[in-house]
Design a protein that fits this description.
10-stranded mixed sheet; two-stranded antiparallel sheet
């Protein structure tokens, strides 16, 4: 049985008016079109709904009972449509962004503030996690897009580079003099370096850079959180080696000294999206704000943050 809500509406209007001409006028269709639609409905359900004479139209007993059912069905259908529309409106006002913590700390607060100012009622979910976890959440459709480093090679993903940041050293107290001038990768091997774990892009970039020199990168300590790095630096346990965006949250600490690694790697930072599908309007607005903040950072810290390379992925 293939019956549409439109057919049920035509049936109910005719059952109320019991006049093909008047019902057709109310429905803004021709009388022959209405007659044809009622005939097709009767054939589809195998039941005569109306008794027709040259002078009158009236419901059959079965037609009268079916009118009650049709009103109930259409009522449930309309209520379902309203629930569907409400859910769609709520979904349209939500955006989920995955980003590793240092980027979430530096970039996303401005993005969220702008979105909330421009779109009252917006609901933003931020998932700060390791780079690989951000990519996985995007693949699992838990995020609309991800801010990540190291262009993913997954065939279902697209990468748009936003900027590249330099690796720097950060220390306090007795280590300040050692960081008074720019340093080279070979000189770092003599320092008590503190960095993030192997799951971080910071570790991956530095390991790759030393591997190209035929050297195994072995920092003094590796931790999961930048706040732990900050505590260790404050107690002069060692010197942090991080990309500039990772160092920025630590700069307000009193007595810190930074030094550029002149021949260090450049970390790529970008937006990752799924190739299939199309981001919603809110996700697109959020990505545009991320691009704007990235351009602002590039202009504000030209010595540490570089614009994207000409090559696109």
């Amino acid at each position: 049985m293939n019956i549409s809500p439109k057919q049920l509406r035509l049936f109910l209007v005719l059952s109320d008016t019991l006049n093909f001409s008047k019902a057709a006028e109310l429905l803004f269709i021709s009388q022959p079109a209405l007659t044809k639609a009622i005939r097709e409905l009767e054939e589809s359900i195998g039941l005569t709904l109306f008794e027709r004479t040259t002078r009158s139209v009236r419901l059959t007993p079965g037609g009268a009972r079916m009118a009650v059912v049709a009103r109930s069905v259409l009522g449930e259908f309309e209520a379902g449509l309203q629930r569907f529309q409400s859910s769609a409106e709520r979904e349209a006002a939500q955006v989920s962004i995955a980003a590793w913590p240092s980027l979430a700390h530096v970039v996303l607060p401005s993005v969220c503030a702008t979105l909330e100012r421009q779109r009252p009622g917006v609901q933003i979910t931020l998932m700060d996690a390791a780079n690989s976890a951000c990519i996985q959440r995007l693949l699992n459709h838990q995020a609309d897009f991800a801010l990540a480093s190291v262009a993913p090679t997954h065939p279902e993903l697209r990468y748009e580079e936003l900027l590249r940041d330099r690796f720097v050293l950060l220390g306090c107290g007795k280590w300040r003099k050692r960081l008074a001038a720019p340093m080279r990768m070979d000189e770092l091997l003599e320092l008590p370096l503190i960095t993030l774990t192997d799951a971080s892009t910071a570790m991956r970039y530095m390991s790759a850079a030393y591997l190209q020199r035929g050297i195994e990168y072995r920092p003094k300590m590796q931790v999961d959180q930048a706040t732990t790095v900050a505590g260790l630096i404050r107690k002069e346990v060692g010197i942090a080696v991080l990309p500039w965006l990772g160092v920025m949250p630590l700069l307000p600490m009193a007595g810190t000294q930074t030094a550029e690694i002149v021949d260090g790697p450049l970390r790529s930072v970008g937006i990752v999206t799924r190739r299939q599908g199309h981001p919603g309007a809110l996700a697109q607005a959020a990505m545009e704000e991320v691009r704007a903040v990235s351009r602002e950072l590039t202009g504000r810290y030209p010595g540490w943050i570089l614009p994207p390379s000409a090559r696109r992925r």
